[in-house]
Amino acid sequence: MERTKASLLKVQPPTYGNIITVLSIDGGGVRGIIPATILAFLESELQELDGEDARLADYFDVIAGTSTGGLVTAMLTAPNEEDRPLFAAKDIQSFYLEHSPKIFPQKRGTWGRARKLVKSLRGPKYDAEYLRGLIRQKLGETRFHDTLAHVVIPTFDIERLQPTIFSSYEVSKSPSPDARLSDICIGTSATPTYLPAHYFSTRDIQGHTREFHLIDGGVAANNPALVAISQVTKQIFDANPDFFPIGATDCGRFLVISIGTGSPKIEQKYNAKMAAKWGTLGWLLHGGSVPLVDVFTMASADMVDFHISAVFQALHSEENYLRIQEDTLTGKDSSVDIATKENLEKLVHIGGRLLKKPVSRVNLETGLSEPITKGTINADALKRFARKLSEERRLRESRSPNADKSSQH
Q1: Which residues pair with 167 in a beta bridge?
Q2: ∠ CA(298), CA(302), CA(303), 5° rounding?
Q3: Burial 336-373 (b: 16+ CB within 10 A, else e)
């Protein structure tokens, strides 16, 4: 028997369950189509178990996203007029297909490419006007505290030269970061050289103003999974009753799904001989790519994967960690801004193909993902995680005095 829509309005806190559930989505521009495909599959599995009204926000204690992943996070957690998620996961892919060509308009022909190159030397490649207007239209005046699940979105404040982590856990303690969700999404998406930095300010109830000068969260954490875990751990350490009696060092209680946007590692498009000759311009422009951006985003993503994997293995909880990443992108596939119809449709295909690939983990010696289990593909792993998420939700509902008992079966 399927549960009713009413029973899926709010996930009960971890104090009534066995695990803490985390979903993390990397940054990567138009390559956000890849995790969108993965998320649609996961949500469809949850709907098979709990009914067509099930949404990802109904199952995760915290959803984290950087850059394009931050936008996906907002789409999954921002409320619509019925106080349900603004987007179903299956609709995110079509959102990218429709809007990416307008966010990243393509200059065709030799003259068009030359103009694009000249513009990139003088300022950002794109003016972001369409992106900003689109985000503000979709998210409206939604504030950070309005999200339907706890949300963590990393950004980097270029004035302070330090990461600024927007965490809905912190909003109740410090009202000033309770910014509009649209401003946070625009800030975390402001990739250096591609899109302009974003300024906004907030004012708390005491009248204190805080200014933000934000660029892409990938500078700090392109893979935000570890940031999300750290935010939860801080809540446990601060004795947040939602997590009692879980201990601050009880990392074995986490269930983490981390989804990447792909990388071109196998292509090996850079080497030391090339880089040895680069000056400032070379690091910022090489063969249509920005090596410096590639380096800092991919480095942080792999280090996070390696760290979480090692910790979960040490705690004998490796079955509760799933990293899905494609590292065989080549040519235009690996671009963050090539938004031609051909390339976008290819990214859809890559996302579907990734579901059929073996469950893998990064090897820091080779830099490549290696299968960790024989015969288990990512789709099978997601089905297993969907069952765990559904079971955890049911357990919390059965234990919580705040749950709607009449809607359970």
Answers
A1: 152
A2: 115
A3: bbbbbeebbebbbebbeebbebbbbbbeeeeeebeeee
Q: What are phi and psi of 301, to 5 degrees?
A: -65, -45
What is the pLDDT, as a whole number, of residue 118? Answer: 57
Q: What are phi and psi of 79, to 5 degrees?
A: -85, 145
> 63: closest CA among 236, 227, 248, 264?
227
Element (H, E) at 116: helix 109-122
Backbone angles phi, psi at 181, to 5 degrees: -60, -30
Segment 296-317, tens digit of pLDDT: 787 888 889 888 888 888 888 8
Q: What is the pLDDT of residue 407?
A: 47
The verdict on whether 50 is a catalytic residue reads no
CA–CA separation, 356 and 282 (whole Å): 37
DSSP-derived letter for residue 107 is: P
185 residue type, one letter: C
Name 155's bridge partners: 164
Of 304, 328, 204, 232, which is closest to residue 21 (Cα–Cα)? 232
What local confidence, expressed as pLDDT, does residue 30 receive?
Answer: 97
The candidate with the shortest Cα–Cα distance to 73, out of 34, 23, 30, 37, is 23
CB neighbour class for 203 (10 Å; exposed up to 12, middle 13-18, buried from 19): exposed
- Looking at residue 55, its pLDDT comes to 97
The one catalytic residue among 216, 302, 333, 337: 216
Amino acid identity at 229? I
Distance CA 57, CA 171 (A): 19
Question: Distance of alpha carbon 117 from its chain centroid, rounded?
Answer: 29
Amino acid at residue number 222: N
Question: Two tokens at 384?
Answer: 């297993």
* pLDDT at residue 2 tops 50: no
- Alpha-carbon distance of 243 to 16, in angstroms, equals 8
Those residues with Cβ within 8 angstroms of residue 197's Cβ, 6 or more apart along the chain or in another chain? 158, 190, 213, 214, 215
Contact 110, 128 (CB under 8 A): no
The span from the CA of 214 to the CA of 202, in Å, is 13
Residue with tokens 């991919």: 298
Is 294 annotated as catalytic? no
Single out the catalytic residue among 24, 67, 167, 182: 67
Q: Say if CB 104 and CB 30 are below 8 A apart.
A: yes
